[in-house]
Amino acid sequence: MTRLRLADGEVRAEIDPACGGAIASFYSVREDERFDWLRPAPLDGGVDSMACFPLLPFCNRIRDGNFTCMGREITLPANAPPSPHALHGMGWQRPWTVLAHSGQAVRLQLEHPAEAWPWHFRATQEITLAAEGLVAQLEVENLDTQPMPLGLGFHPFFPHRDSARIQVATEAMWESNTELLPTVLARPAVVDQLRQGVPARDLLLDNNFVGWDRVAHIEFDDARALSMSATDPLDFVTLYAPPGAGFFCVEPVSNCTDWPNLMHLPLAERGGAILAPGAVSRASVRLAILWDR
User: Fold this and answer.
1) N or C: lower Cβ tally within 10 Å for the chain?
2) Cα(164)–Cα(283) distance, integer angstroms
3) pTM of the model
4) Residue 293 has pLDDT above 60, yes or no
């Protein structure tokens, strides 16, 4: 399936339904100069190279793919070798069906039978482009006869320019072990640094943050920035800034890593939800373009 193109004035995007329903690019063309707000994917790129992909029916890792839900022992396959853990759900590794496509919007759908993830669900994603930016909306409906655990979110990749700064207000950070699984909720110095804004080049993170106000600011230089805002239940944010990479990630999500195994903790510390049969959960994220601030 070819990529679907969206355009509104100088703002452009490409969507790849076959590659995890992902956004392949999001950029502006002004005076014949292209500026990429998200990391652009090569034409032959896989989902790991995309600009942004949806996360469902869980975000981040589940330890060894194992957890218990309402008395059921669940074992998920490791889907990101060589890691032994289940990662980011199934939506990013499945092709999505195109329901509608116009010049400024696309609506995609994924119906997932009860397989390795033993609950039947349907996901719908709508991506809309406008002169002021991009909005991605995600909806998940439980089509199963049993309650289903659910986490959802978005995984955007921002290009790592030397002048880039990140400003995110949170209350605490999950510290993690060498397998990137949460160990203790703490308030290291980086929490306060991020509240004030910190150069992306100074960060080395792969952590979940709690108590997020659902807003993040990404400054690329003195003239160009993005304001990212999310809706409930995306009350957590993951910052992924690996060393030497050409990108960094600020991911609005509804749960921390391994949340199904942290059900003994307060909801505000681990997130996630149990979706009743027939129930629907919705979330959205907006990327607002700011020029010449």
Assistant:
1) C
2) 27
3) 0.96
4) no
